[in-house]
Amino acid sequence: MVREYTVDLKGLRDRADLHERIFHALPLPEWYGYNLDALYDVLTEPMEPMRIRFLHFKDAERVLGAYANALRHMLCDVMDENNNIECIFS
User: With a cut of 70, which residues of the chain have pLDDT below it?
Assistant: First the structure.
């Protein structure tokens, strides 16, 4: 069974806000480092299958610019590394 998670990025303010939203939406460990490297490390560990929907990704692109692009590329790398992860950007 695939667990579904949603990260709503509507009204995103900054990088810190992004990582707070990710932390609260996903089953991440308490030691999550609130950065892309830490997110990659967590999501490439063996885990149950999950689908992560990033809603309003255009808001992230508008506010974060290149960082949103880096997030998308990192998550594509995660999906290449861990077949249990699917990310959808809308």
Answer: none
Q: Is the distance from CB of 64 to CB of 17 less than 8 angstroms?
A: no
Q: How far apart are the first and last CA of the chain?
A: 23
Among 83, 1, 12, residue whose Cα is nearest residue 25: 12
pLDDT (tens digit per residue) in 48-73: 999 999 999 999 999 999 999 999 99
- Residue 47's identity, in one-letter code, is M
